[in-house]
Amino acid sequence: MSLSALLLTRLELPVDIIVKIAFYIPDATDFFKFLEALRPCYMLGPLEHLYKLGLTYDRNELWPILVLKSSLVDSVDRYAFEEIVKCYSHVEVEEVWTNVEWLQKNISPWTKIDWIIRNSIPTAKVLDDLINVRITRLSFVFYDEVAPTWWSDILPRLPHLTSLEAYITSEEEEPSDFFECVAASNQIIDLEIDVSHYEMRAEDLVHLTQWFQKQPVRKFVCFSGDWKAANMNTRQAFYQIMFNCTTLETLKLSSCHLDYVDLTEIVFTMNSLELIDCELHLSQVETLASRLEGSKVTHFEYDDNRIIENDGMEYLLKAQSRTGIKYLRLQSTRLFGPRWPTLAQWIEKSTLEVLFLDGSYFPSNGVEILALAIQNNPTICELYLDYGTIRISDLRRLIESMTHPSRRVETKPIVWKKYYGKVPQSDDLKALKELAIKRGGEFIIVLQP
């Protein structure tokens, strides 16, 4: 019996307290280890059903958010799901449920519900029934042609909806009055859109501007926002209200056209800012770096291959120590060019806590320069490498620099994500992990297909 189980047994805590303790565990692996440790003590109560479901179902779909699929209503595990769903404060419902009565009967009226729709449209009856279900987040993806006005039917029927994610990838489908519906909403404060095959019109930007003016917007994410069709005045009005929104916590723009936008009056009040391939000119990057000074941004991600051969990246790194940025992610396939030694000097002088470098190739000479910069830096405690090609010896060098005895940071993990190419020998990876542990750090490899 584990020490935690033994202590809880002697305390003779009631089941409801055990359930509350368990639900404070954020990680699925740790959560089920906790259940397994307590199971011999017969203290799990309704969590016994969850433990048994974890033996046959994907545990990541059981915790921390319970994923509900319509097929479970007719499964042998229906009773187990009905017993545990009442314990959750947050669940995810996938696809269109025709048995809305089951949701109403078994889910607490205070539970937040994420509704995920993929290539299917709910009937009018289902929509009418869902009005009494507390759906707070809606995410839909359509790859085929669908009815262009369905969202004008569904959004007014979800009075608790605060978060909306829309991915429209069909070339046949146009968002029609989607942005008008968002602007008319009285509760949506989180919006994530992917309009890869749609050229946004001037009226779309006007509606988004109205949404920012009307709502205390908390999060805005836009992929492939092609708004060049709008005139410069309309675009600038949108930029001003978006970047200067005082309630905004997270802003992510990917493949959005920000060239020629005037950043001189931008305040950047959000905590997290991501600008991915937004076609900024060098002068804009210089202004961006200066405006980040004194801003509230603590998490910053930047990717634009156009500026790596000039002073753009240096502007950002040079300004970092005068900002509140603690998490910095830089992405470029040409990061380790002639200017890399200069950039590394600013990394060494930075006050960063997390450094994330993203690219496709990590040359040995670039590794050595980075290793020396990290070794002499007093604050960087996490290093992420999103590179496909790097030598085992270079990874060893980075582990040694992160865990150098002269560095007094508390945590020292090095995470390497590998997406393609030959997988390193297991013995090599084991040796790297053992080296990191021996030196008080941690080496993690994430293999992606």
Strand line-up across the major sheet = 1-2-3-4-5-6-7-8-9-10-11-12-13-14-15
Q: How would you describe the shape?
A: globular
Report the major sheet: 15 strands, parallel
Strands, total number:
15
Proportion of beta-strand residues: 15-25%
Mean pLDDT: 86
Helical coverage, percent range:
25-40%
Poorly predicted regions are none
Cα distance spanning the termini? 39 Å
Give me the Rg, rounded. Answer: 25 Å
| SS field, number of helical segments | 17
Given helix and strand content, the structural type is: alpha/beta
Quick synopsis:
This protein has 449 residues and is of the alpha/beta class. It has 17 helices and 15 strands.
Structure description:
It is a single chain. This protein is an alpha/beta fold and 449 residues long. It has a domain at 1-64. The chain is 35% helix and 18% strand. It is built from 17 helices and 15 strands. The chain has helices at 3-11, 15-22, 28-38, 47-53, 78-84, 100-106, 124-130, 150-154, 178-184, 202-214, 232-243, 282-292, 312-320, 340-348, 364-375, 392-402, 426-438; strands spanning 66-69, 90-94, 112-118, 135-142, 163-168, 190-194, 219-223, 250-254, 272-276, 299-303, 327-331, 354-358, 382-386, 413-418, 442-447. The chain has a 15-stranded parallel β-sheet. The model has no long low-confidence stretch (mean pLDDT 86). It comes from Aphanomyces euteiches. InterPro entries: LRR_dom_sf.
Task: Set down the secondary structure blueprint.
Blueprint: H1 3-11, H2 15-22, H3 28-38, H4 47-53, E1 66-69, H5 78-84, E2 90-94, H6 100-106, E3 112-118, H7 124-130, E4 135-142, H8 150-154, E5 163-168, H9 178-184, E6 190-194, H10 202-214, E7 219-223, H11 232-243, E8 250-254, E9 272-276, H12 282-292, E10 299-303, H13 312-320, E11 327-331, H14 340-348, E12 354-358, H15 364-375, E13 382-386, H16 392-402, E14 413-418, H17 426-438, E15 442-447
Parallel strand pairs: 1-2, 2-3, 3-4, 4-5, 5-6, 6-7, 7-8, 8-9, 9-10, 10-11, 11-12, 12-13, 13-14, 14-15
Protein name: F-box domain-containing protein
